[in-house]
Amino acid sequence: xxxxxxxxxxxxxxxxxxxxxxxxxxxxxxxxxxxxxxxxxxxxxxxxxxxxxxxxxxxxxxxxxxxxxxxxxxxxxxxxxxxxxxxxxxxxxxxxxxxxxxxxxxxxxxxxxxxxxxxxxxxxxxxxxxxxxxxxxxxxxxxxxxxxxxxxxxxxxxxxxxxxxxxxxxxxxxxxxxxxxxxxxxxxxxxxxxxxxxxxxxxxxxxxxxxxxxxxxxxxxxxxxxxxxxxxxxxxxxxxxxxxxxxxxxxxxxxxxxxxxxxxxxxxxxxxxxxxxxxxxxxxxxxxxxxxxxxxxxxxxxxxxxxxxxxxxxxxxxxxxxxxxxxxxxxxxxxxxxxxxxxxxxxxxxxxxxxxxxxxxxxxxxxxxxxxxxxxxxxxxxxxxxxxxxxxxxxxxxxxxxxxxxxxxxxxxxxxxxxxxxxxxxxxxxxxxxxxxxxxxxxxxxxxxxxxxxxxxxxxxxxxxxxxxxxxxxxxxxxxxxxxxxxx
Length: 488
Ligand SMILES: Cc1cc2nc3c(=O)[nH]c(=O)nc-3n(C[C@H](O)[C@H](O)[C@H](O)COP(=O)(O)OP(=O)(O)OC[C@H]3O[C@@H](n4cnc5c(N)ncnc54)[C@H](O)[C@@H]3O)c2cc1C
Ligand code: SF4
Known about the structure:
There is one protein chain. The mean pLDDT is 96. The chain has a 5-stranded parallel β-sheet, sandwiched between helices. The chain has a 5-stranded parallel β-sheet with strand order 8-16-9-10-11. Strands 12, 13, 14 and 15 form a 4-stranded antiparallel β-sheet that branches. The chain has 3 domains: 6-139, Fumarate Reductase Iron-sulfur Protein, Chain B, domain 2 (Orthogonal Bundle); 153-247 and 420-487, FAD/NAD(P)-binding domain; 251-417, FAD/NAD(P)-binding domain (3-Layer(bba) Sandwich), CATH 3.50.50. β1 and β2 (63-65) form a beta hairpin. With 488 residues, the chain is α/β, with parallel strands linked by helices. The radius of gyration is 23 Å and the shape is globular. It has helices spanning 6-9, 20-23, 36-44, 73-81, 85-93, 99-105, 109-112, 125-139, 161-172, 189-192, 201-213, 230-236, 265-278, 299-311, 346-355, 425-429, 459-462, 467-487, and strands at residues 58-60, 63-65, 153-157, 176-180, 217-219, 239-242, 248-249, 262-264, 291-295, 315-319, 360-361, 364-371, 378-390, 396-400, 406-409, 412-415, 419-421, 454-456. The protein binds flavin-adenine dinucleotide (FAD) and iron/sulfur cluster. Iron/sulfur cluster (SF4) binds next to α7 and α8.
């Protein structure tokens, strides 16, 4: 374990960040890495407690508590404390293919279930993970794997974190892996969803380049189902893994939806990253000098707030239909469950620094969009307050509060209301069964679909989720495919 009793004398401390008004001038990451000495002190706080929940990854209260990939947290904390960085790295990659992604973007359910968080301050697990992998890359601990080939060939469709984790694991086991991606760049939402400020795209490419060196083949601008067909891949490869994500965004079908200026959040974010990488603004959806209304108070909405501010918007607000979460855990949300508490994330911090207040307006929904004077572009968003009530079947539903209507100035609306499930062209082509939520039907742990040779993982199987779950699914499906290939 770390240092006995260190958690009693050493306070939790996380990396400092560049000041909001400074960092909004660029799209660079804004966390300032901690010194090695400070990271060791933080790792020393880990007690290696009798029953650690931090790596349990179980569902409690409908949310993951502990790490879904079961990172060996107490072990790597102890190794950091002792300065054994290379061993810490080996412990970390035993469970996680891509700690550089989770160390940056994971919401860290591990920290929500850390025993020290029960009545004190949890260990800085996520930053310790980040520090190990960055030190490993800098110190040359990350080496190209030497791989003995099996002669089996696998096609992975989709290159998000689930497809990448699957490809990396199968390649390490000796199978020849080809990844097909319809976008012009590899990475899925790591590349074209999560903004640069949270995950620099050079970090994504550092991993892709390594995977390429190790033998994984990537084919971009290849939309499976169009060219090549899914059936072609099925004929050509020993196994096919579907990792196409949950890419159908939830829409808001109210009057005025067709006005120009109403976009899906992912389209806005993708266009922004692409214009930065291509150094070409021709496809950018610009928020410069505009009033931006974001519908959805979640993390994607936050990414849109931060991106709009960097464009130089006139103002930006975020509309959320749910009530404001409590500032600390409610009695119905005890440790070690994921804490459902109010979070002031980077985008909100920046809005507060720039305009004085938090952008989020709670218990509010949109009733219609209204045109500007030209009749074709957006001018206004009409909203109403809601009150959550039960219907005759006992389900919670939002009821409009009479007299609470408002009209908000808006040049751009970004719909960040989540995703409905996977697109269906490959599913239909191969006659793959779907579950009640329209995801691909394949049991967790087995990941096999109803079609011989075809497996599924990630958001396409699980529904909209997190990077860490996508990695967990990618690793799991690889294990299942390997068993199938080696026993067939
Ligand atoms: C804006 C945004 C921000 C997010 N931020 C975070 C965060 O900070 N932390 C976090 O943990 N999670 C975050 N998430 C969620 C996380 O990104 C996803 O859960 C995760 O990426 C899912 O991984 P995946 O591999 O299943 O799918 P995806 O990442 O969606 O990748 C699927 C890939 O399949 C490709 N594809 C689809 N159809 C085809 C086809 N027919 N042929 C070829 N390729 C195809 C797509 O182009 C895409 O590249 C965010 C999501 C969004 C939308
Ligand atoms: S992957 Fe996420 S949940 Fe797991 S240890 Fe890292 S930060 Fe915690």
